[in-house]
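Try this one yourself first.
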């Protein structure tokens, strides 16, 4: 089964210029609603009413989270809205989308269904981690008053902090904000590697479905090259962005360009991969009628020829 990435590509193209300018409000009020509408439109391609309803509800919750700061504009920094309500609604939205996607994958009979299962599960975990990390960032903004300051503050160990279960040696605390960005970097690096692995091993073979003819085989190298460029751009962009913790919260134009290249190349790969071989269709249409004769007709034709020769 092939997962749709059109809403994600559209969201990326709109978000990058806004993120470079530090326009968080633009991302929430423009990029997210447009991506939600695109995802809703894609969900209507499903024949199941239950699937359409589930995706509609999940996207509605995501849209509610995005416009909530606009409805309750009573605080100074927009990230302060990442409170418990934000966490509960966001996780509910992602969980509903995850369960619906898993149900769709379960109905597939493709050979890549196991890999798709693993990809969907791991992506869901990273999304939940990202939501929880936004909640932590909200706590840091309350202390340091800006996102950029959390990437530049010195790390002071809090002796009174309680050792965590997942990270026993390095628990999170507001006195060491750079440790938070180390967790964010790990999450983004994992997502980029997972994206590249799924694209090259599972998503790319679907582009080869229409490359069985001589004309189609000439596009194999083009599709493979586009996939390599896409994955390389994503991985390099993440690595460069989080190469140093200081200032990593601000997206630069260099990294933004790499992300845009990945999104555009992904769309181009989908378009090229969906192209059918017209010459093969023409050959099928122009097939001579004499090839449609039965074996008995051919046998009678041969007997007639033999009589003429005699």
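Now uncover the answer:
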């Amino acid at each position: 089964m092939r997962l749709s990435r059109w809403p994600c590509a559209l969201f990326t193209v709109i978000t990058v210029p806004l993120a470079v300018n530090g326009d968080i409000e633009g991302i929430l009020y423009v990029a997210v609603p447009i991506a939600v509408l695109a995802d809703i439109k894609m969900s209507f391609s499903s024949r199941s009413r239950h699937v359409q309803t589930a995706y509609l509800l999940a996207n509605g919750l995501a849209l509610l989270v995005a416009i909530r700061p606009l409805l309750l504009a009573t605080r100074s920094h927009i990230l302060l809205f990442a409170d418990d309500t934000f966490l509960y609604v966001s996780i509910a939205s992602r969980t509903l989308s995850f369960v619906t996607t898993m149900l769709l994958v379960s109905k597939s009979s493709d050979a890549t269904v196991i890999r798709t299962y693993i990809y969907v599960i791991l992506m869901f975990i990273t999304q939940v981690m990202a939501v929880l990390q936004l909640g932590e960032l909200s706590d840091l903004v309350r202390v340091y008053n800006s996102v950029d300051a959390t990437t530049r503050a010195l790390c002071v160990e809090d002796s009174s902090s309680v050792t965590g279960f997942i990270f026993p040696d390095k628990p999170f605390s507001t006195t060491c904000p750079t440790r938070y960005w180390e967790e964010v970097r790990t999450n983004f690096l994992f997502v980029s590697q997972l994206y590249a692995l799924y694209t090259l091993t599972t998503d790319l073979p679907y582009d080869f479905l229409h490359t069985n003819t001589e004309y189609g085989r000439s596009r194999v190298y083009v599709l493979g090259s586009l996939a390599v460029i896409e994955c390389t751009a994503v991985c390099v962009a993440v690595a460069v962005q989080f190469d140093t913790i200081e200032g990593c919260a601000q997206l630069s134009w260099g990294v933004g360009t790499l992300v845009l290249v990945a999104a555009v190349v992904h769309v181009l790969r989908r378009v090229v991969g969906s192209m059918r071989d017209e010459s093969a269709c023409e050959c099928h249409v122009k097939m001579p009628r004499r090839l449609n004769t039965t074996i008995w007709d051919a046998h009678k034709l041969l007997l007639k020829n033999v009589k003429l020769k005699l």
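Discussion: Residues 14 and 31 are 6 Å apart (CA to CA). The chain has a mean pLDDT of 79.
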